[in-house]
Amino acid sequence: MKDCIFCRMVAGDIKPRTLLETDRILAFHDIHPQAPAHALVIPRLHIATLDDLPPDDPELAGALFQGVRQVAALLGLSASGYRTVINCRGDSGQEVYHLHLHVLGGRKLGWPPG
Ligand code: AMP
Ligand code: ZN
Fold this sequence. Notes:
Helices cover 21% and strands 22% of the residues. The protein is an alpha+beta fold. It has a single domain (5-105), classed as HIT family, subunit A, CATH 3.30.428.10. It contains two helices and five strands; from the N terminus they run αβββαββ. It has helices at 5-11, 58-74; strands at residues 18-21, 25-29, 37-43, 82-85, 101-105. The radius of gyration is 14 Å and the shape is globular. Bound molecules: adenosine monophosphate and zinc ion. Zinc ion (ZN) is lined by residues 1, 4, 6-7, 46, 98.
């Protein structure tokens, strides 16, 4: 997907501030952090939304969540805690249509979210 910004990161055309790379996922700092620590975990595969997660590939969801756990540890959030957010389409405010898991922490996070 050459017009997808996250696919361009996977391809190496755009260089994010990378935190973690595996054969299935990539994790990097969000460009507009909403908390002192704010990272994104994405699949290398172009998947537009959570609803498009391939049902025949359960390992991918596992790889994404393991990525979240590792990124939280890398950011020093494991003890203090953190939040993972997945926005899915219009009402959620999803802006980039390549599946991504937000990892937010480093301050007390309000609930419910806005
Ligand atoms: P969402 O609203 O869930 O689609 O979130 C998209 C996220 O991608 C936002 O938090 C943006 O700040 C982030 N983002 C957009 N472009 C970039 C980029 N080039 N590098 C890092 N993060 C980005
Ligand atoms: Zn993409």
